[in-house]
Amino acid sequence: MPYLNITEVESAVASLATAYPGTSELLTLPEPSIEGRTAHALKIGAPAPVPKSCVMMIGGVHAREWGSCEILVHLAADLLEAQRDGTGLGYGGTVFTADQVRNLLQRLDLVFFPLVNPDGRLFSQTADPMWRKNRDPANAGGSTNPDCVGVDLNRNYDFLFDFATAFAPTATPQVSADPCDQQVYEGPSAFSEPETRNVRWLLDQFPRTGWFVDVHSYSQDMLYNWGDDENQSVTPAMNFRNSQYDGKRGLPGDVAYAEYIPKTDADTAVLLAEAFCQGLHGVRGLAYKPLSGFHLYPTSGTSDDYVFARHFVDPEQGKVLGFTVEWGTQFHPPWAEMQRIVLDVDAGLVRFCLATA
Ligand SMILES: [Zn+2]
Description:
globular, 12 strands, alpha/beta, two-stranded antiparallel sheet, Aminopeptidase, binds zinc ion
């Protein structure tokens, strides 16, 4: 199998840290997975006299979306090699100069966490290719139904977790409180899973993170905040913390609710999503769409909305704009096509990082 297995993803991350000791740092996540696996992340960037802003990128959250790990491992390797050799980077028709690469790694720290859900990826690659959740049996209640194992990690973050209260009765958020939901079971409580607590820990370790990208598949989109409803920038009180709007969220095209996002943040989010799509388009002409998460489908408990929500809930936290890449048109493209998608998405991500300046 040309896709990396979980041992190979972990060893790729570790060998990059070994090969580039001056510009990378291996980070060990504190919580083992449900099945006891320790995960690692990689911080890359040129040493700097002052703390730098940070872009955090995670992948391998949904088990079956195999190529997400490869996308992040290759991007880290490409940037480290180009910086060491003083070269630029070329992805098909999208080209970055040596100056751009050097400036990027001087200005920013990039934190890559390519395999958030190792248990799920192993199960998907060896037992059930379409497996999505982690492998937590805790909420199966002794059921022998295999669907009752696991939590959808990208519904387990603390954002409108009580979706039954938050959303309108007629809304259709893609989330479930039923442990036997095969796809989108949110878990018994926000951050019930070690894998999502690891992501939260990583954010806490890098308080200067300003941008967060969660790499998923599929639909050829670049999603930005918010995912629970349409965006609005005129009524600050109409927001996810305000219980006055419980039972009103999640409906398209209505006036009862839209999620508040300050105008400058809304504009920046769109610009960055467009930059990603432009960089990607240059590789071989694919047209990914910049969309708010809600325009894919309404959600709660996702990583991108959680990271952006943090500074509204706690003003001590820095502001983090959240994004979700949805690469490709299937979960397991033939490897030859996946290699092209890696180039597409990595070009988009480099352009995205440059656009944060
Ligand atoms: Zn996904």
